[in-house]
Amino acid sequence: MKKTFAPLYLTAILLSLALSSCEKVIEFNGDETENHMVMISKPQSDSPWKVRLTESRFFLSPDTIGTIKNAQISIEVNGRTPNNIITHQGNGVYDLGYTPQPGDTLTLRVTTPEKGTMMAGCRIPNRPVVSNISCTYDTSHYYDYYPDTVEVAGGRITVKLTIDDPADAVNYYMLRVSSANLNYNYNTDTYDTIRTHKNISVDDNVLFDMDATEEIFGFGTEDNYGDAVLFTDERINGQSHTILFDFWDQHLIGTIYVEVYTLSRDLYLYEKSLKATSQLDEFSILFAEPVQLYCNVTGGIGILGGSAVSKIPID
Questions:
Q1: Which of 99, 123, 147 is the last residue of a domain?
Q2: How far apart are the first and last CA of the chain?
Q3: Full residue range of the structural domain in which residue 237 is found
Q4: What is the pLDDT along the chain (315 residues), one digit of tens a residue?
Q5: What are phi and psi of 212, to 5 degrees?
Q6: DSSP assignment letter at 97
């Protein structure tokens, strides 16, 4: 299958969610307004495999993003059709009735009467091997939200861990941090139980190139800072490499989870291009060329990419 970089103006839906040799760019000449089928699926080992099916929307169109409700869907696992039951959960989300395992090769095929067939494939990578985890807390800052009842502490958490990278394959990694605590959401008047930290900063001169200015003033580069940090094993192949990173938490309540992912190559490239779009401010978007998101779907646009995670709680 051909790899595709789909322009942002055709794939507004890709930003709402969040197989071989050559690459193709979807050309845009100013007249292209046709809707394309969009597949977003990121199967993770030991979790139910789901896909969201929508139609792309021309970036000047006032229409809402349409979901696909009449899709005929089939899957293959390691070249065979499993005994699965596919259910539509609403809003274009389908549960494919299968829980992937590391090493599984997955194929997903979607057909609609109006748009034809789109398909993609991926492989679920092995779980990352993580060891020697330790953390420290700097609680020198406090927020006294309710002085008569409770004082909520906030501080910077520094984590050190070791990734034992296997030498027999090219590996792609993603680092994230999440919390399971009671974080009040003013928009919905509810308490969230899981939230992702958006200010992870990795201090690592091996994985990331840093110049003197960044080291002196502590600025993060585009690659080593954000809500997800992505890197490959190009510089640590076959080695045990220790990573140091920190992030700010304004509650220090409940359990914090350090999440180390291995990604399929396609998912890694998709997440890298998606992250690049989020780093464009309004001024840059006005003068930049359209950002192109990596895709690996034929007959449509989108992504099918696999991952496996080691999730480590720190209390």
A1: 123
A2: 45
A3: 129-263
A4: 445 555 444 443 333 333 333 344 444 455 555 788 999 999 999 999 999 999 987 555 556 678 888 899 999 999 999 999 999 999 999 999 999 999 999 999 999 998 899 999 999 999 999 999 998 888 665 554 445 555 555 678 899 999 999 998 999 999 999 876 555 555 555 555 566 776 899 989 999 986 544 443 343 446 898 889 999 999 999 999 999 999 877 655 667 889 999 999 999 999 998 888 766 555 444 444 555 789 999 999 999 999 999 999 886
A5: -60, -40
A6: S
Pairing assessment for the beta strands 130-146 and 150-164 based on DSSP bridges? antiparallel
- In the DSSP assignment, the letter for residue 111 is E
Residue 33 structure tokens: 């307004």
CATH of the domain at 118: 2.60.40
Give the ranges where 22-156 is alpha helix by DSSP (H).
none
Q: What does pTM read for this prediction?
A: 0.79
- Per-residue burial over 148-174, b if 16 or more Cβ lie within 10 Å, else e, is eeeeebebbbebebbbebeeeeebbbb
Strand order from edge to edge, sheet including 225-226: 130-146, 150-164, 240-249, 200-203, 225-226
The residue type found at 65 is I
DSSP state string for 142-154: EEEEETTTEEEEE
46: left (phi over 0), alpha (psi -120 to 50) or beta: left
In-domain check, residue 61 = yes
DSSP for 178-205, written as a single string: EEES-EEETTTTEEES-EE-S-EEEE-T
How many residues belong to the chain?
315
